[in-house]
Amino acid sequence: MAFEYKIVRRVEFGDTDMAGIVHHAVYFHYMEAAETAFFRSLGLSLASRQAKPLVGWPRVHCECDFFAPLQFEDEVEIHLLVAKKKSKTLTYAFRLHQLKGPERREVARGRVVTVCVTLVDGRMKAIKIPKAIGDKLQAAPTRLLV
């Protein structure tokens, strides 16, 4: 079972604002890219149309604390940790680090809570995380979440 995943991205020009730094909303795109890659690494998809029942993962809480700016062409490592796994929800902790040569500087920390849902009569309904998904995930050890 997996509880963490890391990806590295390069800051694109379109990620930046008029001051030349990464716009705050883009950090959530980075976190979502890590989540998507994490699921893919487990042979899963956040938007699989083959799963029964069909499930989605809307966000019910998102937050991010910023410590230092990222700029165009910086490399950023996005580290995802499964902070909590409950019957219907997954909580992710994210740590974002700017990579410059051998240096790593933490630039942000985020947290995202998702709920597993399916559609019933055209409306989202929270359901237990399907066994085929839940069996591949576990919460990270507490020592990694501090």
Quick take:
It contains two helices and seven strands. It is mainly β and 146 residues long. 18% of the residues are buried.
Keywords:
single chain; mainly beta; Thiol Ester Dehydrase, Chain A; two-stranded antiparallel sheet; 2 helices; 7 strands; 14% helix; globular
How is this fold's topology laid out?
Layout: E1 4-10, H1 26-41, E2 59-66, E3 75-85, E4 89-100, E5 103-115, E6 117-120, E7 123-126, H2 131-134
Q: Compute the number of helices.
A: 2
Rg, rounded, reads 16 Å
Kindly give the count of domains: 1
- Which of globular, elongated, flat, extended, rod-shaped describes the shape? globular
Query: What proportion of the residues form beta strands (DSSP E)?
Result: 35-45%
What percent of residues adopt helix (DSSP H or I)?
10-25%
Task: Report the major sheet.
Answer: 5 strands, antiparallel
Regions with little confidence, pLDDT below 50 for 5+ residues: none
CATH architecture descriptor text: Roll
* Strand and helix order: EHEEEEEEH
Number of strands: 7
Structural class: mainly beta
Whole-Å distance between the termini? Answer: 21 Å
Order of strands side by side in the largest beta sheet? 1-3-4-5-2
* Mean of residue pLDDT values: 95
The CATH superfamily is Hotdog Thioesterase
CATH class: Alpha Beta
